[in-house]
Amino acid sequence: MSRLRPGDPGREAHQPCRVRPGLRRGRQAPPGRGDSPGSRSGGGGVVTSEQWRGIPGFSRYAVSDCGGVMSLSRTTRANKTGVWLRPSKRLKLQVSPDGYDKVCLLGDDGKRAKVTVSRLMLLAFVGPPPSARHQAAHLDGNPRRNTLDNLAWKTPKENCADKVAHGTHLFGEAVWNAALTEATAERILLRLRDTRDSYSEILRDFPDVAVALAKMNAGENWAHVRPDIPRPIRPVRKFAPKRRLTAAEVAEIRRLYRHEAPRPGHRTLARRYGVSPTNMRRILSGATWTEES
Questions:
Q1: In this predicted model, what pLDDT tens digit does every residue of 37-54 receive, in sequence order?
Q2: Range list of H helices, 156-276
Q3: Which CATH architecture group holds 53-166?
């Protein structure tokens, strides 16, 4: 980097060294320092050319369609009189423990964030995610192959289904924080099938196990253990859906409670309007729906 001061003959010549407008239109960006065009690849393998685009929310950087990330050329002040010219530079990617390429960038809000390269590529070349829940998914299950034809926005449910199809989804003992082993899970399932012991009685014999037996019984957890045992093993208790009251109903409930003779109790009103006695008590006491009191 060279340091220039006001009055130096080369100051005006170096002034345009900023983000090139062509970057945001998808033109070929200048190679980073020490790079030669066509000699780099971001997703593995040698590429002949890379298309670079600016990243929404990270205007100081650009990402390529092959998974490369670079910081753009810019001028920064060193002191009151000096100016530093920072050339564009290709950034070194970090590999997370789960195998995804990540890079730490300074956002336009002034905060640093460690973002996956796959998400940066979709933001730049595809557009923003359809919702805040969408994730950058690799279609072939390889988190290191960052190419546009291998990336797409997907919901967590769709992404998890792809992991199951690719064989990369961890379950059972393979999960680092698994609550029990498959042998213990099999013993619990057989106990649920062959005895009439309650959940608390079963867990009393497994003091080191913290697991929801109701979900095991329904087949929501540990369904891969003893698939020959049909789920649910025991009848599942079904709860009525929660009832959401309107403001008019709340006003009517309070009017009945205050003026009807004989005055109905909170349990009677709870059964009439399909809510729990606890919620009805909170409505009558003014703990909830305070604006309607």
A1: 344 444 444 445 889 999
A2: 156-166, 182-194, 199-204, 213-218, 247-259, 266-273
A3: Alpha-Beta Complex (3.90)
